[in-house]
Amino acid sequence: MRRVLAFLFVACVCLGAAAQSLPSKLEVKIKSKDHVQGMAIDTLARCFYLSFTTSMVKVDYEGNVLASIDSINGHLGAMTFDPASRKLYASFECKDDVIGQGIAKHLGKDTFTQSKFYIMEFDVDGKTAQLGAGNPVVEGQWEVTEAINDYKVRYGCSGIDGVTIAPQIGKKKGKPRLYVAYGIYGDISRRDNDHQILLEYKLDQFKAGVTPKASAKYFVFTGNTSWGVQNLCYDSKTGCIFMACYAGQKPEYPNFTLFAVPVAQKPVKKVLRGLENDGEHLSLALLQQGLLSSVKGLRGWRFGDPSTGVCTLGDGTWFVSTPLKLKKGFQTATIHQLKWKGGPQENPFE
């Protein structure tokens, strides 16, 4: 398999024992020009994994860096952890657009001439590379062909970003699936970019010699967003996949930043708003909680923090990251422990 990554693995000395309880707040400081993009929690190893666009770090519950992968030549985005297989999955983009040009410039690399999008799998225990227990290594990467084909052509597709593992949508039984969300340009002159798009994959497709194919492609009407779903997160307590976005700019929409999609619902195949000439698509409805909207069926919250990292424990406990850029090329990610309360208000967390 041809690798498009150019990275240096750096194992860091643990600076202190992991905290004995889940943190209410912790700060991670690294030298990077890029803000935090996503995170996942590993309760067995008592650590978090965070992506900073061109690097990935593993930190304990006190914020000490345990290991890192640096100088990733591309855009490493949202992350999700599968405790059953102990694999970490992340979205990864090699882009020729303004985002790709910016990344190439500060890495001193050539801009990609052809855009490709991948799901990356990390072995978080380091078994495959014999680099020592606890050192994440890249175990595989697979093209997201649907997004590659749609890029700049349909639905405002700018690539991919949000990823999560959740039950199969519309099924009471079955193995968990991996969901990947499109990144979507926020162009206010378009009408085909007002839906979020989720691709569904069987997890057993992500193995050597297999080209994964999406088993379903779902459209969720949210109105305009800027860059689509930044982070996906399945929460077993509410039974929903949450989509965290940057606010859109179209004045006819409420431009929420957080949406919820119940996984128990049956998808409906129909012609969609703004896509009247595109045939029928599988459509999913939003959870009817959150702020009311003048647009039928469109509800959500205006809480921007989850767009740079969110994960849950499934018991009402959420972890949300917020970025801060410091001087001399340093970035911080502050992880806050929150409690879900839902309801019809701007902020659904306590």
Protein architecture, described:
The chain is mostly beta strands. It has one domain: Neuraminidase (6 Propeller). 5% of the residues lie in helices and 43% in strands. The chain contains two helices and 22 strands. The protein has helices at residues 98-107, 145-150; strands spanning 8-11, 25-31, 38-42, 47-51, 56-60, 65-70, 75-82, 87-94, 116-123, 137-143, 157-166, 177-184, 195-202, 216-221, 225-235, 240-247, 258-262, 268-271, 280-284, 310-312, 317-325, 330-339. The strands form five sheets. The protein has a six-stranded mixed sheet with strand order 11-12-13-14-19-18. The longest helix is centred in the first third of the chain and has 10 residues, at 98-107. The protein is globular and about 50 Å long.
Helices and strands in order:
Elements: E1 8-11, E2 25-31, E3 38-42, E4 47-51, E5 56-60, E6 65-70, E7 75-82, E8 87-94, H1 98-107, E9 116-123, E10 137-143, H2 145-150, E11 157-166, E12 177-184, E13 195-202, E14 216-221, E15 225-235, E16 240-247, E17 258-262, E18 268-271, E19 280-284, E20 310-312, E21 317-325, E22 330-339
Parallel strand pairs: 14-19
Antiparallel strand pairs: 1-6, 2-22, 3-4, 4-5, 5-6, 7-8, 8-9, 9-10, 11-12, 12-13, 13-14, 15-16, 16-17, 18-19, 20-21, 21-22
